[in-house]
Each structure stands twice: as structure tokens, then as C-alpha cells.
Write a structure and sequence with these properties.
With 362 residues, this protein is an all-alpha fold. The chain is globular, with a radius of gyration of 21 Å. Helix 3 (38-61) runs antiparallel to helix 12 and helix 9 runs antiparallel to helix 12 (245-271). The chain is 66% helix and 2% strand. The chain has 16 helices and four strands. It has a two-stranded antiparallel ribbon. A two-stranded antiparallel ribbon has the order 2-3.
């Protein structure tokens, strides 16, 4: 792992033209809630979260070549950690049954909080759990997968199996997870003794998205990112050069899971619920679509795709319930005519590039 940390340096600067574009985009997002209605503000916040979730997948798929359908799992694990905190901290007057045991647990015969859920009444514990649980789970399965030198389509099959298995498990544990309904009717998010309004949650999400994209750009433009690209192109060659490929894969896999977990945690106070539906293969496939449509290995592409497809879905949904068909047609057109995604329409000079051959000189 020391070898991995040692390569996170020598990051390239963002081209000036791209800096200006990013600054203009950020200003638009800052002004957006003041000119849009409450519905559009909440929708944009959700789409920014989904776009950031797409960025987390882009780190492992677009840069490292690991196609995963399990990022919905990491998202949901982080979401449940925050949902438990918000549900457990409802006031006695807001809780129909009083006390600290949530309503869905009472309905299922539980008379006291399970020992593994009770610590989540603390906000610091919930914040740590929101990151540590998905990251720890990812590290465990990543260590097994990558140290066993599983690769290619087999990794994808494993992530599909994990998503399906956990969906079934969470639905079956109704007393602890709320079953198919999940955890609903949570309390408002309170920071420093004040209730965070919807616009406050929007700016928290915008800050998280901005930091994630900026940090991911810096990481992928460093020597570390160069190695990730090289692993994607020719894993054996990188191994022959003396790099521990498994360590690099485990690190980026765990980091991406942590980002997904934070996105899930922020999703709960925004939408006031979390459910096993986000564990499933269907949601995992949506994340893959955002990355594919936006452009793998671009970081900005998944955010653009998530916002674009989300707004299309919102508009089409008013006319017909078959919005999935529209999204399917868009995906087909992108695959046929823009195999590198929407970001391929931009000049390559604007994005910058790294040369894998540079590894020979490192």
C-alpha cells in the first residue's frame, strides 16, 4: 500500500480553458436554487448526487477497467447509516410510539434497539459509519477479488451477485431494515443545533460534488492515475514493471465505495428515505449508463449524463410512463455514434491527456 500512496503526487494542473468552464458551471449551480423553484432545486440536488455516484464508478471502470454493478450497494449502505441516525433521533412527540425504538421495529415485535444499531444515535458515529461501512465492505470483497487475481467479466458477475444477494437479505430483515419500504419519515438534518433547510442541503451536496470531482481530477492526473490507466490498458506489463497491481485496484475500489457511501448518506436528508431498491441491479445499471453516456474516464461526463438523463426522465414522465424506453434509445444512439460518450464531443486539448509510456521513465 505504501507504493500506492507514493504515486499520489505530481498532479498536472487543469488547463486554463477548462478552469474557466468549471468556474462558470460552478457559478451556475450556485445561482440555480435562487432562480429555480423548490422542486427543481431538490431534483438538481438529487441529480448532482447521482452524478457524483457516477464519478465514483468512473474511477474504477473508466480509469481502471473494472466494470461494477455494486456501487448501488455502497450508496445504500451509506444511506442506511444516515437513515438510522435520523430515524433514531426523532423526538418522542414525532414518534407515534414514543421512546427510541422506530415504528417499523415496533411493528415487527422489537422492544429495544439492536446493539449494532444503537450507536448510530450519535451523529459522529453515523458520519463515520456512512463512510466506513461501505468502504470496509468494499475493501473486504476487493481484497478477495483482486488478491485472487479475478479479472474481466468475472468481477462483473460477482458484483451482480452481491447486489442481488444483499437486496434479498435487506428485504428479508424487515425488523431491522424496514423491508421493501426501507426507512421512511426520518427527521430533518440538524447541524450545530439548527435545522438544515432544503437549500442548505443543496449547497452541502454541491460542495461534496465539487470536492469529489476536483479531488478525483487531481488523483487521476497524478502518477497514481497514470498507473490506473496503464492497468486498464495492459495489466501484465504494469506487473512486470514491479507495481503491485492488486494494491492499486483495492485502493481505488475502496475509495470509490467511500465516495458512494457519502452520496448515499446525503441522499437520505434530501429525500427523507432509503430503501433496498437502491441495492438492486436495476439501480446499479443506471449508474453504469450515466458513466457510459457521459464518457468513461472523463469524471465530468457522468455528472452531465446524470443531470441530462434525469431532466429528460422528469419531462418525459409527465407525458408517458415509458421513460425507460427513451433512455434506452439515447443509450443506443450514444453507443452507436459516440462510443466514447458525450464528452468525446469536446476537443482533446481541453481535457488534457496522460501518456502510459511515461511509466517507463518513472
Amino acid at each position: 500500500m505504501a507504493q500506492v500512496i507514493g504515486q499520489i503526487q505530481q498532479s498536472n494542473f487543469i488547463p486554463k480553458k477548462w478552469q474557466l468552464i468549471n468556474l462558470a458551471a460552478l457559478l451556475i449551480f450556485i445561482v440555480f436554487p435562487f432562480v429555480a423553484g423548490t422542486f427543481q432545486t431538490n431534483l438538481m440536488a438529487k441529480l448532482l448526487l447521482f452524478g457524483t455516484l457516477g464519478v465514483s464508478l468512473d474511477l474504477v471502470w473508466g480509469f481502471t477497467g473494472i466494470l461494477s454493478f455494486a456501487h448501488g450497494v455502497f450508496f445504500t449502505l451509506g444511506g442506511y447509516a444516515m437513515a438510522y441516525y435520523l430515524k433514531l433521533n426523532l423526538s418522542a412527540t414525532a414518534n407515534n410510539y414514543g421512546g427510541t425504538v422506530p415504528d417499523f421495529m415496533v411493528w415487527n415485535g422489537l422492544k429495544e434497539l439492536p446493539w449494532f444499531i444503537a450507536p448510530l444515535q450519535s451523529f459522529p458515529v453515523a458520519i463515520v459509519a456512512m463512510v466506513a461501512i461501505p468502504a470496509g465492505f468494499a475493501y473486504a470483497i476487493g481484497w478477495f477479488i483482486f488478491r485472487s487475481k479475478v479479472s474481466g467479466v468475472y468481477i462483473t458477475v460477482i458484483t451482480l451477485a452481491i447486489a442481488s444477494a444483499l437486496t434479498t437479505f435487506f428485504v428479508s430483515q424487515q425488523a431491522y431494515t424496514g423491508g421493501t419500504n426501507g426507512i421512511t419519515d426520518v427527521s430533518k438534518l440538524i447541524l450545530f443545533g439548527l435545522v438544515v433547510p432544503p437549500i442548505g442541503i443543496y449547497f452541502i451536496i454541491l460542495t461534496f460534488a465539487t470536492l469529489t470531482i476536483a479531488g478525483s481530477w487531481w488523483l487521476t492526473k497524478s502518477n497514481f492515475g497514470l498507473i490506473l490507466r496503464s492497468i486498464k490498458e495492459n495489466e501484465q506489463r504494469i506487473s512486470y514493471l514491479g507495481y503491485d497491481v492488486a494494491s492499486f485496484k483495492i485502493f481505488i475500489w475502496t475509495l470509490s465505495a467511500a465516495i458512494a457511501g457519502i452520496a448515499g448518506g446525503l441522499f437520505v436528508p434530501l429525500n427523507n428515505f432509503i430503501s433496498p431498491v437502491y441495492l438492486g441491479v436495476a439501480f446499479g445499471t443506471q449508474i453504469v449508463i450515466w458513466v457510459a453516456v457521459g464518457g468513461r474516464g472523463t469524471l465530468f461526463g457522468p455528472v452531465i449524463a446524470a443531470i441530462l438523463l434525469g431532466q429528460i426522465q422528469n419531462s418525459v414522465d409527465r407525458i408517458t410512463q415509458d421513460w425507460q424506453l427513451i433512455v434506452g434509445v439515447i443509450l443506443m444512439l450514444v453507443v452507436l455514434f459516440l462510443p466514447d460518450g458525450l464528452m468525446s464531443l469536446l476537443p482533446k486539448q481541453l481535457m488534457g491527456s496522460n501518456n502510459p509510456n511515461k511509466l517507463e521513465r518513472m
